[in-house]
Amino acid sequence: MDETPENILRSLTRRHFLRSSLHGIGGVALASLFARDAFGAAIGGQAAKGAGALAGLPHFPRRAKRVICLWQGGGPSHVDLFDPKAELARHAGTDIPASVRGATRLSTMSSNYAKWPALPAIKPFRAWGESGTEISELLPHIGGIADDICLVRSMHTEAVNHSPGVTFFMTGSQQPGRPAMGAWLAYGLGSEADDLPSFVVMTSSDREKSCGQLFYEHYWSNGFLPGRLQGVRFRPGADPVPYLANPSGASRESRRDLLDDLAALNRARNEERVAEDPAVETRIAQYEMAFRMQASVPDLLDFSNEPKSVVEMYGPDALVPGTFANNCLIARRLSERGVGFVQLMHSGWDQHGNLHSHLAVQCRDTDQPSAALVRDLKQRGLLDETLVIWCGEFGRTPFGQGPSEAPTGRDHFGRAYSMWMAGGGVRGGHVHGATDDFGWNIARDPVHVHDMQATVLRLCGIDHERLTYRHQGRQYRLTDVHGRVVDGVIA
């Protein structure tokens, strides 16, 4: 073969060039980044338009333009935090009646209990705000925003262990492999941000290491949706997105020249192809997003312009990388820059044997930052268009675990539990649903995981039955074949 520059260029396919250069520049080809201008390309063969929204979306006027999910992994105890039950105190130490317990096998991680001693809340409840919502004294800051939150006391799930429970809430299936909620929203609604991903994830690194609960990537997976829709994990420290910075000796100008050369190679090769290769086009778009993030991420994490009063509102750990407080502050900054879905993963609520000591620790870590985020968004005029969700995968048993005469913890409990939301079109100062006198069974207005997913999509302007993606011969959606919108929580 004549090795002229023209023939060498013709022999290079885009795929070969990108694969061969992976070690040099592939680090910045983050599989979950996308650019707004790249979304006009075909997404998995399905039409898109504008800033990435699919044709015909949104289906309804959007109440929430952004979502922040404050995930509390491990199963926060509803009867200790959000659902006061006087009967537990009156029956303390005696078995919860069998007539109340009913089918226990689907309620706890284990069904091998000989005793079911009622365990009262470890701290008193009090009424907060003008709404008089009863919340534990362990959560004084969340209590202070009681008039802004919608407290749901009637959640239920089939999941009885952590990873399936988290996966179920985030993806609609207990088995990994489905797209996460943030990926679905990015797929349907596109992005408002030019220089940041539409779906960002942060984890509380201190809790991940100390509590033995791992944060799995399928919690923010794109599943069978295009790879650019996967959540981008920001890690604590000076290098939040690995390989985003230029290698030693490479300048921003040289990186720009490199990207321009890649585009030229693709244009040359495109002249010989009948159709574009969507996978390669996606990767090129990821290069461009990574280039823009080189400027936007340092600015995002520069807190020098944050007023001292705002930083102090989030608590003493607000500027400590990897803490829940710092992640909440970054979440606000991401949202005001147009990031559509921010997912904060915190763990440590799995208190089988340390309820009396560790529940208070968890509340200290999360109470002030959670409330500060809501207050901060509100004072900036962003809360009405930002949906904040505070939730875990299930609750904990109303009976004690451990020695029956002196229980030290509570087991997993998916039969009934609590969560709250704020902003984004929900009813502030409202309590939805109720459990029975022991916090065991749902007594009014049950809300299943699929119902909550349908409601979140509805607040974002999406009919959950109409946002679908064809995969392996069938149409999939976040809510699978279930779910109903919970109108009672919508303002």
List strands and helices in order, with pairings:
Elements: H1 5-11, H2 14-20, H3 22-25, E1 48-49, E2 53-54, E3 66-73, H4 78-81, H5 86-90, H6 98-101, E4 125-128, E5 133-136, H7 140-144, E6 149-156, H8 162-171, H9 181-189, E7 199-203, H10 205-210, E8 232-234, H11 252-270, H12 278-300, H13 308-313, H14 324-336, E9 341-347, H15 355-379, E10 386-391, E11 395-396, E12 412-413, E13 417-422, E14 430-432, E15 434-435, E16 442-444, E17 447-448, H16 449-459, E18 469-471, E19 474-476
Parallel strand pairs: 3-9, 3-10, 6-14, 6-17, 7-8, 7-9
Antiparallel strand pairs: 1-2, 4-5, 6-13, 10-13, 11-12, 15-16, 18-19
Helix pairs in contact: 11-12, 14-15
Tell me about this structure.
The chain has 491 residues and is α/β, with parallel strands linked by helices. The chain has one domain (31-240, 301-489): Alkaline Phosphatase, subunit A, CATH 3.40.720. It is built from 16 helices and 19 strands. It has helices at 5-11, 14-20, 22-25, 78-81, 86-90, 98-101, 140-144, 162-171, 181-189, 205-210, 252-270, 278-300, 308-313, 324-336, 355-379, 449-459; strands at 48-49, 53-54, 66-73, 125-128, 133-136, 149-156, 199-203, 232-234, 341-347, 386-391, 395-396, 412-413, 417-422, 430-432, 434-435, 442-444, 447-448, 469-471, 474-476. Strands 3, 6, 7, 8, 9, 10, 13, 14 and 17 form a 9-stranded mixed β-sheet that branches. It is globular. Mean pLDDT is 86; it is low at 8-12 and 14-50.
